[in-house]
């Protein structure tokens, strides 16, 4: 087994994003692999650096709503987390060095809702991912897990919402994966064009007022039926009319 003790900034460059303009290599080089080195062990210092990066993420009112449950491969909690994953994720995530259950505290101690808790927690995981990339580690976030079962299995209170399970480890480009996972691992990374993400900055064009409805032309009253003219009795034969 190999334990991480040092930083390594060269990993995971195989699927570097083809960006429209240059961006930081850590961002362009990050991707979500399924092939992990099954013998790699995540050192405590490395794990701590990941969590520390997450800890310093910005959050609404500095509320810091993110919570992490970390388990190394081989630990009981790792096995329990693995069992909570959807089958497609369970097929590869067991080779990760650690699994993290990430939860968001969606209300404060007084019960007041934290509307940005999920957003903030995502930012913390983003920071963790970049730190992992710096340290030569790979991260793969998974929404495909049984959140209700996770809440139950780890005794999470009402205000804690399980958000993702994160696989952390060292990329193994030669890992043998079943299809269709192997094909996905080889596939180029894609994104929507940048322009398609941009909302128009112009004020919305006011709606054209609706043309007032033309009042309905009153119905022409029906012409009263002309009473039938009584038939003039025929003059008797031989009389002038
Ligand atoms: C919230 C979230 C949930 C995700 N859930 C899964 C998942 O359940 N299984 C999986 O294989 N990948 C999952 N991913 C990874 C995405 O599929 C991946 O980030 C996306 O396809 C872009 O690929 P890239 O990260 O390699 O650039 C998830 C990512 C995020 C952020």
TrEMBL record:
Alphabetized UniProt keyword annotations: Oxidoreductase
Report which superkingdom the organism of origin falls in. Answer: Bacteria
Oxidoreductase is among the record's keywords: yes
Protein name in UniProt: Nitroreductase family protein
Species in which this protein is naturally found: Planomonospora corallina
Which Pfam families is this protein grouped with? Nitroreductase
Q: Establish whether keyword Oxidoreductase is in the entry.
A: yes
Domain Nitroreductase: residue ranges: 28-170
Quote the InterPro entries the UniProt record gives.
Nitroreductase (IPR029479), Nitroreductase-like (IPR000415)
Give the family from UniProt. Answer: Belongs to the nitroreductase family.
